[in-house]
Specification:
Shape of chain C: elongated
Distance between the termini of chain C: 14 Å
CATH architecture of the largest domain in chain A: 3-Layer(aba) Sandwich
Distance between the termini of chain A: 42 Å
Helix content of chain A: 40-55%
Radius of gyration of chain A: 20 Å
Number of strands of chain C: 20
Number of domains of chain C: 2
Strand order of the largest sheet of chain A: 2-1-3-4
CATH topology of the largest domain in chain C: FAD/NAD(P)-binding domain
Order of helices and strands of chain A: EHHEHHEHHEHHEHHEHHEHEHH
Strand content of chain A: 5-15%
Shape of chain A: globular
Strand content of chain C: 25-35%
CATH topology of the largest domain in chain A: Rossmann fold
CATH superfamily of the largest domain in chain C: FAD/NAD(P)-binding domain
Radius of gyration of chain C: 21 Å
Oligomer: heterotrimer
Structural class of chain C: alpha/beta
CATH architecture of the largest domain in chain C: 3-Layer(bba) Sandwich
Number of helices of chain A: 15
CATH class of the largest domain in chain C: Alpha Beta
Strand order of the largest sheet of chain C: 5-2-1-9-20
Chains: A alpha/beta, B mainly alpha, C alpha/beta
Largest interface: A-B, 96 and 91 residues
Structural class of chain A: alpha/beta
Helix content of chain C: 25-40%
Largest sheet of chain A: 4 strands, parallel
Number of domains of chain A: 2
């Protein structure tokens, strides 16, 4: 895919000493990714990162479901900054696009409407006795991974290349709306041609696919997924993207935002169960990865240690393409190798559609 | 009493989001909600900028303002620097303050969001925890999630040393002191007042709709599950 | 004999020189490019009459030669005062007054990243289409004939996001004109104009708009295109709202033509600073006032002609050049 302008949208990304904020959705659905991020930073790259037990959710999902007022989320954000300040850190990294959007928006709002910052300081002091300094740098965890992409490429055990043919893998990168649509200058590459994932993909040997619905939302839509009555919105938008990308035969999808990764994975399951449609090869779904999982595979991490067994769409076809060694029998084992049964079969994993189950019931 | 427009202007998002609209439709052209619902963010902005109080009241009491998914795709494109998504956020906030949300089917769903996400934040410090994503309410989460849900204590600890316990790591239980701070933050910054307003107006509306016990679990599940299918 | 230096050798500059000559004043035209003619050089036909641009240009050049008016090409101006102009190479030329006729800069469509100009095959600008019409071959990137064409109005105009809040005025009529020219070449093609307002301000424009609809069956959709994306078969998928029905719209087209606007000349800021000239918020030069001194600058002895002060069509530009020349001549005769 061609892009001209990404170099015009650059930002400072700190090189070391990060204060890490976890994500509600990533730790729920991709706990292995959060672990991998910390491991890669600390062990592979030798960087300092603080995982502070006192920090909390940014409450962004509540904010964008409109039940958490702006004044409240600002104060929650201020508390996170206070914890960072007290710990002696100044580089804030958020593991979630919704959070990253929230932090960016809050900082911009304080800048534009200084009275809101004053009020927030007052609220925080009253509620917690804490005070804060604003971060010197704010980044999404993928920005940090992007920052180290060449260093990771030098340590690579695997490339994003088809091991049999030597051809680059075709990758759909999905950025997540709140990464740069709210503040285009806050994202590497801006809002139209974000480069944060593409930079990793290209450095690690893959090739990005441009497809008509590339910039379209995954379909989370907050209340439109969280309330069951509204989920048609969510699946319809994921469906639109999947239909649009499928003709390009992507080898996998990589998502910036944990929510997007989850929805693009799970809605493939739902579509397959409802309609029998699958979008990948040989009747399977398209594997959906987080960028931590992508980086982990490149660095030679075991896919099950990365938590890729927690995906609904099987990742084995991708692992085979990349020539990655893995133990198929170990996939669904519990702690200490304990056998805990396996998930039921599903159409999206190539099982016969006679198991079709009507989601609408 | 202040006019609705003036009340909206108290919200910084409204001041940031509404300059002037020339009805070009760029926002609606990329709006995921517009493709799905009978919804047009341009018209929302256009109505609001007329400052027509009756028209704004209809918005505050209707379904329309609840269709937006807050993806903010409208924001980077508007040639007049408006953000329809911010205007929506301000309208929704006001609708909940005034209790008008309870007058529409989509608005009434705020009770479910408050009870699921809001209460969970105060309970755990996170919007979502694994036990909240119950497979029977989330069939779309698939067979793997059901397997994870059923074996959470064997699966999550592979990735975190502190699953549902105190300490540093994913899916930990937040310490009582931090939870207390979050609770007080919600108290002093209006979060609790918002929750209370949602509960109170939902209860009133529930009784009006014939739920004798008010906004109980049955009412909550009804607003969570039922779709009149009159939105497209 | 009094001498006036005219900065810019386009339609405005040439017409100013001709009028000054009539008034017995010596004119020297400084042209930055290798050839005089300005933006008219790249244009195919003029609205609303489809007069070849070349015809107007040839006649202006003939008159310039006839009056033996000097045009110095490749002469970029660095700074000016009412009594002198300094070129980029440091050479200083003395004079008794200056007319600034340096025109506009065409908006760079690549800045509107969401339309993918320069990235996707088959996204063109209105200037590209004029060039293709001049070359006698309008085609898609693969050489095939388009079946469905969209023209988008207001690219780089009326747009806060790219700091161009003004209306460029001539894009609407250019869209109508090009739609008709394309329809003539591709009678089977469906052609859509995506617009916000159709601003038919000139004589014969409204009639042309009507003809485009009535005789040529050109479609007009009231809505600005939100984004363009490439499809697998080399077409362009566009999204917009049809604001008259209030529904979002998505379609694939064989060609997307961006009607690029006029923005303030890139050189204007530096020239204004060198001479103490005032500019409008749009970046265009600000006349001393909009009514009684609209070809004069705020600096005595410096005059304006043409699009250096605002977007204009060719007819207006030619008229204004006469007014500017007369104002300069009156000033010198005082």
């Amino acid at each position: 895919m061609k892009r001209n302008s990404w170099k015009e949208y650059q930002k400072q990304i700190a090189d070391d000493r990060y204060y890490y904020a976890r994500s509600c959705i990533r730790q729920n659905f991709f706990p292995g990714s959060e672990k991998a991020f910390i491991d890669i930073l600390q062990n592979d790259l030798g960087r300092d990162l603080l995982d502070d037990p006192k920090h909390s959710s940014c409450t962004g999902i509540g904010y964008h479901s409109d039940i958490v007022p702006l004044e409240t989320i600002m104060t929650v954000v201020a508390r996170q900054f206070a914890l960072m300040t007290e710990a002696g850190y100044e580089n804030f990294v958020a593991s979630c696009i919704t959070s990253f959007g929230v932090y960016t928006e809050v900082l911009a709002t304080w800048e534009e409407f200084p009275e809101t910052e004053e009020k927030t300081r007052e609220n925080l002091l009253k509620a917690t006795g804490r005070e804060f300094r604003k971060p010197a740098s704010l980044a999404h965890t993928s920005d940090v991974m992007f920052h180290f992409r060449e260093e990771i490429a030098r340590k690579a055990k695997h490339k994003l290349v088809n091991a049999l043919t030597g051809e680059p893998l075709h990758v759909v990168e999905h950025i997540g709306c709140h990464y740069a649509k709210i503040f285009p200058k806050s994202g590497i590459g801006g809002s139209e041609f974000p480069y944060v994932l593409a930079g990793m993909i290209e450095s690690w040997g893959g090739q990005c696919v441009d497809y008509p619905e590339r910039r379209h939302c995954c379909g989370f839509g907050f209340r439109n997924y969280l309330v069951q009555a509204n989920r048609g919105y969510s699946i319809a938008n994921s469906h639109k993207k999947l239909e649009s990308m499928a003709p390009y035969k992507p080898d996998f999808i990589v998502a910036n935002c944990p929510g997007c990764a989850m929805f693009l994975d799970k809605w493939q399951y739902a579509i397959a169960e409802m309609e029998g449609t699958t979008y990948g090869e040989n009747g399977h779904g398209i594997p959906v990865l987080t960028y931590e999982e992508m980086a982990g595979l490149v660095l030679g991490y075991d896919p099950w240690a990365l938590g890729m067994q927690m995906h609904q769409v099987d990742v084995e076809p991708l692992l085979d393409k990349m020539g990655i060694d893995y133990d198929p029998a170990a996939k669904y084992l519990g702690r200490n190798g304990k056998y805990i049964g396996k998930p039921a079969s599903a159409v999206v994993n190539g099982c016969p559609p006679d198991t079709l189950y009507d989601m609408r019931e | 009493m202040a006019k609705y427009f003036d009340m909206l202007m108290e919200d910084v998002r409204f001041r940031e989001g509404l300059n002037s609209c020339m009805n070009c439709g760029v926002c609606t052209g990329v709006c995921p909600a517009a493709e799905f619902y009978n919804y047009d963010p341009r018209q929302i902005v256009s109505i609001v900028q007329t400052r027509d109080e009756e028209a704004i009241e209809r918005l505050l009491k209707g379904d329309t303002i609840w269709y937006c998914g807050e993806c903010m795709s409208c924001r980077p494109r508007c040639p007049r620097g408006n953000t329809p998504g911010y205007v929506i956020q301000a309208l929704r906030t006001l609708s909940q303050k005034l209790g008008f949300f309870a007058e529409s089917e989509k608005g009434r769903q705020q009770l479910a969001l408050k009870r699921i996400i809001g209460d969970n934040i105060l309970r755990t410090g996170y919007c979502i925890v694994p036990r909240l994503v119950k497979p029977d309410l989330h069939p779309e989460q698939g067979t793997v999630w059901k397997w994870i849900f059923d074996h959470d204590k064997d699966i999550f600890p592979q990735f975190t040393p502190v699953y549902m316990r105190h300490g540093a790591g994913a899916l930990r239980r937040l310490d009582e002191e931090s939870l207390g701070e979050i609770d007080r933050i919600f108290e002093v910054s209006g979060g609790k007042a918002m929750f209370e307003s949602i509960e109170r107006h939902s209860d009133r509306k529930a009784r009006e709709l014939g739920y004798e016990e008010g906004a109980d679990q049955r009412y909550m599940m009804d607003v969570f599950l039922n779709n009149s299918n009159e939105h497209y | 004999m009094k001498k006036v230096i005219i900065i810019g050798g386009g339609a405005a500059g040439m017409q100013t020189a001709l009028r000054l000559a009539e008034r017995g004043i010596e004119a020297l035209i400084l042209e930055k490019e290798a050839e005089a003619g300005g933006k008219l050089r790249g244009w195919h036909a003029l609205f609303p009459t489809f007069t070849p641009a070349e015809e107007v240009l040839t006649e202006l050049r003939r008159r310039i030669e006839e009056k033996k008016i000097e045009i110095r090409t490749r002469s970029e101006v660095r700074s000016l005062t009412p009594k002198s102009v300094t070129l980029a190479d440091g050479q200083r030329l003395d004079c008794d007054a200056v007319v600034l006729a340096s025109g506009f800069t065409l908006f760079d469509a690549a800045i509107k990243e969401e339309y993918g100009y320069g990235l996707y095959d088959n996204v063109f600008t209105s200037a590209d289409i004029e060039r293709m019409l001049n070359e006698g071959r309008v085609a898609r990137a693969d050489g095939s004939a388009p079946q469905r064409i969209a023209l988008l109005h207001c690219v780089g105009s009326r747009d806060e996001k790219v700091c161009q809040q003004h209306c460029s005025r001539v894009c609407c009529i250019t869209g109508v004109k090009q739609a008709m020219e394309l329809k003539q070449r591709f009678p089977e093609a469906d052609i859509f104009n995506f617009y916000m307002d159709i601003r038919m301000f000139g004589p014969g424009y409204e009639e042309m708009y009507r003809e485009a609809q009535q005789k040529c069956n050109v479609h007009f959709v009231r809505g600005r295109i939100s984004e363009a994306a490439p499809t697998l078969d080399g077409r362009i998928q566009i999204k917009a709202e049809d604001t008259l029905t209030g529904r979002p719209l998505r379609m694939s087209v064989d060609m997307l033509i961006l009607l690029v606007g006029m923005r303030a000349n890139d050189d204007s800021a530096a020239l204004a600073e060198s001479a103490g000239l005032q500019r409008s918020p749009s970046g265009f030069m600000a006349p001393r006032d909009h009514f009684l001194h609209n070809v004069e600058s705020n600096v005595e002895g410096i005059f304006y002609a043409g699009t250096v002060t605002a977007p204009k069509n060719i007819g207006e530009t030619l008229n204004e050049a006469i007014a500017a020349a007369d104002a300069a001549a009156d000033y010198l005769n005082e």
